[in-house]
Amino acid sequence: MFLDYFALGLLIFVALVIFYGIIVIHDIPYEIAKEREHPHQDAIHYAGWVSLFTLHAIWPFLWIWATLWRKERGWGFQKLAEEQHDIHHRMEQLSDQLNRLQQQVDAIHSPTQESSTTHAASNEEQQ
To answer: Which stretches are transmembrane (predicted)?
Structure first.
């Protein structure tokens, strides 16, 4: 008789732990969003409750949605655009520097080539 009540109590305890465990698990994306101060944290929270009715089929998408946002960089696209702009600007500087160096090399070689052709022409005239 005692074992029957013990088994029933254990069954109820396990059912409650599983029930509350599912609720805690479904709330993980909301907790992530709240910690990161996500602008859509309420929507993530409501969608988490909806995911209970879809047997957590949309839960992975909520987790991804919650983790994409970071307070210091937002979605990250603006920083990416800034980095691309900086890289483009740096490439323009390097291209200008390369053109100046090429002009300097041409300036150094052109008097040498002129003097060598002039020297060769004067040698031919002398012979």
So the answer is: 6-25, 46-66
Chain mean position to CA 23: 30
Judge if 37 and 50 occupy the same domain: yes
Q: Find tokens 């003097």 and name the residue.
A: 115
Q: Using the structure block, give the residue that is written with the tokens 């990250």.
A: 76
Enter the pTM of the model: 0.54
Going by C-alpha positions, the residue among 13, 22, 26 that lies closest to residue 61 is 26
> ∠ CA 42-46-47 to the nearest 5 degrees?
115
Give the Cβ contact number of residue 45 at 10 Å: 18
Give the residue carrying structure tokens 């390369």: 98
Per residue in 73-110, pLDDT tens?
777 766 667 788 888 889 999 999 999 999 999 988 88
* 14 & 48 share domain: yes
Instruction: Identify the domain containing residue 101 by its residue range.
Output: 76-127
- State both tokens at 79: 């920083």
